[in-house]
Amino acid sequence: MQIKQVTLKTSKVEKMKDFYTNVLGFPLTDEGRDSFQIAAGSSKLVFTGKDARGEPYYHFAFSIPENKFYEAKAWVKRKVDLNLENGEDEADFPHLSARSFYFYDPAGNIVEFIARHSITESEEGPFSTKNIVNISEISLTVEDAIAAGEQLKKFGLKERDNEPINGSSLNFIGERETEVFLLLTQPGRRWIFSSKAAAVYPLRLSLANNVQILVDEYHPFVIDNTG
Description:
Structural class: mainly beta
Radius of gyration: 17 Å
Helix content: 10-25%
Strand content: 25-35%
Order of helices and strands: EHEEEEHEEEEHEEEEE
Strand order of the largest sheet: 2-3-4-1-12-13-14
Largest sheet: 7 strands, mixed
Number of strands: 14
Number of helices: 3
Shape: globular
């Protein structure tokens, strides 16, 4: 599984565009009257204000090379405060062979930079967003995770260890080999390194093989591969 494009809602389009393109330096690849798109490695991230209601927020992760972790962390700390969990500003995940740090963007999204030990690079030069590999995690919060999990299975998208979908915990949908995951969960679970609980907000995901996933106020969860 690969995440080709993520489209998220925000009521702060201009602030978000300034943050992602000027503060963090992501390449601006497209923009409209009320939206913009940036490149994140092999993935695209779109923020749109069209029909945005309230203050939506999401969790997503950018993969970075393992040998750039501390350089990337120092680089981000010069631009924004890192989030803390039990007084620590980074997390180690032995079961994922990865480590992460987190921060909020102007819309309150929980943004993660995750260094996976299987991803290294020998390229010299200071860290920048050019080192980002892809969007490797995106929250997929739905009212019924078990039902959504059954739909995902029909398109070959399963829990990473082939475990049953749990309605009360975080389910990693994807393959360990690709290290790209949909974080399937129901509302109420707190995102680590934040004070925010998972909540259902509209989003659109475009995956490899033209699989499209849509969550909005009219269709709580829709998936197809019609492109």
